[in-house]
Specification:
This protein is an alpha+beta fold and 70 residues long. The chain is 56% helix and 21% strand. It contains 2 helices and 2 strands, in the order αββα. It has helices at 3-36, 65-69; strands at residues 41-47, 56-63.
Length: 70
């Protein structure tokens, strides 16, 4: 494997790890919002091609209780 291909593979692997870490942080963010903003609506939608495939982020929705009340 050439030096440039090794470098490209290293960068790609690092990006994938970073993506996975950020994806996990979304779940932490949802949990924190639910704890601190009772009555708020928080939804996160994911796509899976098959049941064994990794999830793909689709959308994130938040409506805070204070906004619901006006």
């Amino acid at each position: 494997m050439t030096k440039s291909r090794r470098a490209k593979k290293m960068v790609k692997d690092k990006l994938v790890r970073n993506f996975v870490q950020k994806f996990v942080m979304l779940w932490d963010y949802v949990d924190e919002l639910r704890l601190k903003n009772l009555g708020s609506t928080i939804k996160m939608a994911l796509n899976r091609v098959t049941s064994e495939s990794p999830p793909h982020f689709k959308r994130f929705y938040v409506c805070f209780e204070a906004l619901k009340r006006g």
